[in-house]
Amino acid sequence: MVFIMLFFIPFCGYTQGFLKANGKIIVNEGGNKVILRGMGLGGWMLQEGYMFRLSSFGQQYKIKEKIEELIGKEKTEEFYNKWLTNHTTKADIDSLAKWGFNSVRLPMHYGLYTLPIEKEPVAGQNTWIEKGFTVTDSLLSWCKANKLYLILDLHAAPGGQGHDLAISDREPEKPSIWESEANQQKTVALWRKLAERYANETWIAGYDIINEPNWGFTDPKDKIGNLEKENKPLRKLLIDITRAIREVDQKHIIIIEGNAFGNNYNGIMPLWDNNLVVSFHKYGNFNNLESIQGFLNLQKENNMPLWLGESGENSNTWFTELISMVESHDIGWAWWQLKKMGVNNPLEIKITSGYQHLLDYWSGKAARPTPTEALAAIEELAENLRIEHNIYHKDVIDALFRQVKTTETKPFQHILIKTGTVVNAVDYDLGRQRFAYYDTDTASYHYTPGVNTVGNKGRSYRNDGVDIQKREDGYYVYSIESGEWLQYTLNVEKGGVYTVKLIVSAGVDSGEITINHNGIIEKAISIPNTNARWTNVTFKYIKLKAGSNKLVVMANKGGYDFKGIQFDRIK
């Protein structure tokens, strides 16, 4: 709690000094425990296809090639410069601080800092590119201004660090980092260069030296390295990087990641430095103690801090559960990622009609755009990267911070209820599952065999378990199942008797619906087959008091869609 209080002291040159590993926790120079609550900037220095509906391309270099085919090399280079300028700005970092984050994880692409080995004018030497360092300097200055710690993460290492090609922009026909001594030496040299540059920067929390290695060293069929028993090449590289960093920087934390996407630490121990933090990543499995027990055992055996260096890509319920669990064990976290095309992150990049045309063309569903059309779409995408053009998902932020601490609900939209007011069904309260709403499917467990839930099936508007999609006339709740419910906190202008109309539609299977207003449950009403057209289900003589009221819409029987609630005052 001390750290959180200090975080809001106006900036006046105050610093907590270098962070360091102290037994099982991270502390500042005052010896106070620090729980890192961070956000990753995925997609900024390194594009992964899925973030932009381009999974079929995967790697950034392939995306770049496709764009270049449409608008030419010069315009493509201009676009990528705009990308770096617009994707993450000071306004983004200011927002992270305002929302409650205290740290930022920067996924770096080595190609912004140095040349690939095959392009070096002199083999074995390193050409340094100022662009990457300048962008990093700017980010650090924004973090310092907001008293946010910055973690440098080598996300794309020279040659690429695994068989998951997109996460490191790896070109598989070229030697990986594990197949090339030159790539390893370039990686070591890059970290020495970074450490030398930032050695005295106290707002750098640490160096996450290689992201998610995934490689079978002893068994080529073990693509991700999950079965590795010794991980000797990985341990050697981690030690070599550490040694190079310590030549110029003895103070910063060094963060290590095991094989198999940061999860296989066989053979990595014992630790070789007294200021190491062990990172693990967690996606798509259950949030129970069993899911992290192996790391807790590792922590106990080696007396070292753990850090959940990457997680996310799930529902709000899953987010709240995971953060509650790891923080109860003094484990900090960094979410993945701030913005992309989709609703399960704080900021959503809009898909324009022009960009959709590009997607359709690349997937074989539309004609090739003209160079003018393609350029307009690409330039529009570059502008839509900026935070002022993003869609802000306050429900995600609420789940990451407020819902971790309380089960209290709050209105999603502050709407004054009077005659004729219509509340959108999708604007149910902010809060946890079973408190603000109940849905039978609240999260995705895509890495858990036999569990096929997805959370919000429509993947639009909000990131709770409630299923939402869009027609031409707006968003609505669909795929409603028996027993599900939604709560609305209403601010009523004048107390009295109201008619409450639920705007619904049903197909062949009619549903049954009722409401609970301030603890009073009305008799359920059947919803007839409306042939998918909207109709009203009316509850008459509903007493609402002036000020705050709770209204719960309950599905006694599912099988219908729900668009809104209209209020008409009778007396």
Explain what the structure shows.
The protein is an alpha/beta fold. It folds into 2 domains: 2-44 and 88-349 and 385-396, Alpha-Beta Barrel (TIM Barrel), CATH 3.20.20.80; 407-569, Galactose-binding domain-like (Jelly Rolls), CATH 2.60.120. Helices cover 28% and strands 24% of the residues. It is built from 14 helices and 26 strands. Strands 3-4-5-6-7-8-9-10 form an 8-stranded parallel barrel, surrounded by 4 helices. Helix 2 (60-71) packs across helix 3, helix 3 packs parallel to helix 12 (371-384) and helix 10 (316-327) runs parallel beside helix 13 (394-400). InterPro entries: CBM6, Cellulose-bd_IV, Galactose-bd-like_sf, GH, Glyco_hydro_5, Glycosyl_hydrolase_5. GO terms for molecular function: beta-glucosidase activity; carbohydrate binding. Residues 436-571 form the CBM6 domain. Belongs to the glycosyl hydrolase 5 (cellulase A) family. One of its GO terms (cellular component) is extracellular region.
- Put simply, the count of helices is 14
- Write out the strand line-up for the largest beta sheet, numbering strands in chain order: 3-4-5-6-7-8-9-10
Q: What's the end-to-end separation, in Å?
A: 50 Å
Q: Any idea of the CATH class of the largest domain? A: Alpha Beta
Unreliable segments (pLDDT under 50, ≥5 consecutive)? Answer: 1-14
Helix content: 25-40%
State the CATH architecture of the largest domain: Alpha-Beta Barrel
Shape: globular
DSSP strand count: 26
- Could you name the CATH topology of the largest domain? TIM Barrel
CATH homology superfamily name of the largest domain: Glycosidases
Pfam families: CBM_6 (PF03422), Cellulase (PF00150)
Domain CBM6: 436-571
Protein name: Endoglucanase
GO molecular function: beta-glucosidase activity; carbohydrate binding
